[in-house]
Protein 1
Amino acid sequence: MAQDHDPGPTHETPLPAPDGERSAADLRIDRPNSGSPAASVVHVLADRGETLAVVESLTGGLLAAALVDVAGASQVFRGGLVVYATELKASLADVPPDLLAERGPVDPDVATAMAVGGRRRCGADWALATTGVAGPQPQGGAPVGRVYVAVAGPAGTEVQRLDLSGGRDAIRATSVTAALRLLTLRARATAGAG
């Protein structure tokens, strides 16, 4: 797939050994996308020895794909759930069915519950969740471009509302970037809290 932008210079960054110590046998990985939001997440969590899972609705796997595109992601990324259908948010991501019935899938508390459920289900330190309306039509009273991204981690949860414009592809891509940036900020903010 062709890229529309130059990813910038290639950087070679050593990855720490699983026990945190460095040795001559440490793996050195060429990271051409080290400036991307996904690379930031992978690097921050790898440095901390923490793991990540994702629960995706409107992004349909794009968030997971962005993460696994980063060299070294296997140190951090546990896996994820694509819960595009509303009932799967309950059965796979542990979102309370009454919450879904009352508010629908495009809701900040649903996004938070998705992240909490994904973190638990995948046994990860952190989880990201995305839910919203990519279009072309509104859904359940939510306008096209209404998105919630949520993070659940060791120090609690945070959710962010996005009101985006553009086509489906732009809304989905922007949602991925916003979720990754939210996690990076949250992880950095809690770095000294442990």
Protein 2
Amino acid sequence: MLPVLTLTAPAISRESVSLTPATRRRDGVYRAATRLLSVALLPVAFAAAPRRARHLACHWALSARFPAENFDGLSPAAKASFEAARTEALWHHGELIGLTDGHRDAHVQARLFAEAVRRTGSARLALEWILPPHESRHVTGTAFDVRPAEGARWLERHGARYHLYRVYENEWWHFEYRPDGRPPRFSHPGASLPSSACGMPEDQP
């Protein structure tokens, strides 16, 4: 049996974060505890998979730190790139990268978009935070919402080696797998679309 260490923290909320990621004092405690756990698990990981021991120990340790992670539905290439990136982040730089949100079913994305329209009062304003299903890379399994802030900063600096890029100025937590190269940086999700792309009716006065 592997030791179980559950370290929980509040999930990221778009309403509660600034455009620039802020480091919380307790993140340092979580980071140190998770690094110690990964080192402790390394002998077990080496016995299980000698060639992938660091990757496996990292996976176990981060699963304990971020128990709500769900990798189901991610494209195999995107998942492999993300796991390789956060393995390097942990072992070489001591940074943690957790997955807050990955693949979303099209129906879930549609519901989130509809809720954003109701909350903001218009499709145009909703597009500043979320895309409809046919435009979202969460639906295709190639987008990642990550935490904590330091992990997002690391991924922004080093993610290109793994084809992982931040694409929106107002979403420091959102990264996408783009194997064809670095995409443009947009001010918000809706800015990446032609005016007619979302297929939504014009806002009513």
Protein 3
Amino acid sequence: MSVTSFSIWFPTVVIGQALSGLVEGQLRVIFHEISSSEGKTMKLIVSFLTSLMLFCSSSLFADSFIFDNPNKYNIKVFDGDSLLYDKEEKGVYFGRNPKSNDFTVRVDEFTTPINLILNTSLNKNFYKGGCNYSFSLSKENGWAFIGGEFPCTKGQDHLKADSPLFTTKNDTDDPSDPTKKGIPVYPAVASVKDGFAADSLRGFLYPKDSRVYTEDNFLLIDLGIKPGSNIQIGFFDPYAVKYIACGDDVMPYSGKYTFTLTKDKKCVIAKTSAD
């Protein structure tokens, strides 16, 4: 049996103190994968309490980071001059209310060291999600990240030319009517038609936010999806309590595509442009 588990650390040990500390501090979710000789996978069922905590944390934090890091590179993230994160973990999700205008992300052990300056959403009137950066780091496949819309920093693709890069984007805001806000959703992945598993461990995908799915993504690994495998992308609408499928069937997991959930709650598939 294969079990996927995760842990949540709060800034304090007392719940009452933790709730107040969440506004000032950060939430970190660490994913672990334990495989047995059978090589089978047990799907993780996230409890209501865990979902509630993730929902609260996503609402409180302006900016967030996701790292798929199978080779356990040391990752350093700074908010201005303040060190936020300095560890070697396979999968990380944490949120932060920024205190400066810039984040710095460093991965010194990479073949070509990564040193990025990323915009924060400080003092920007963003709808909930802020600047949310989704990274994939791999010795075998290279690296990529996706950011949000302005003022967030645009993403970069440094993956191998033949490495798949699927990006999910929440575009449910209605620009013609500012009073009609979009909805937070979970991206979802299936290896067979409509057999979706929601990517809920990393929190909601808020309007204007995006998330990357490379072959080093832990949800894809759990589902046994590799380059050339069948895959279907979708979104889970927590208000309608249903999945929204992208396309009528599975497609090969290859190439570079963006899957956009529109204001009409429909999914549009497009090849990702190189610019």
Protein 4
Amino acid sequence: MTVEVKIGVQYAPRELSVSTEEKPQAVLALLDEALKNDTVFTLTDDKGRTVAVPAARVAYLDFTSDAARKVGFGLAASEAAAATAQ
């Protein structure tokens, strides 16, 4: 299940958005470790791109599941095909 993580950064007008396969608890553990070591918080998305933020500048993390957001023609077509097959 893909999770979208929105990262608020202090003094930045926009948040960063990363889609990842990591569970929220794992992401929080990465941030906790970076804060303890006073290092950079890094998160890799599901396409292999890495976002790096100084851990001390992370204002918040917001987790959203992408599972509920499946919309579009592909979903409707697959549901219609399943309904006609029955």
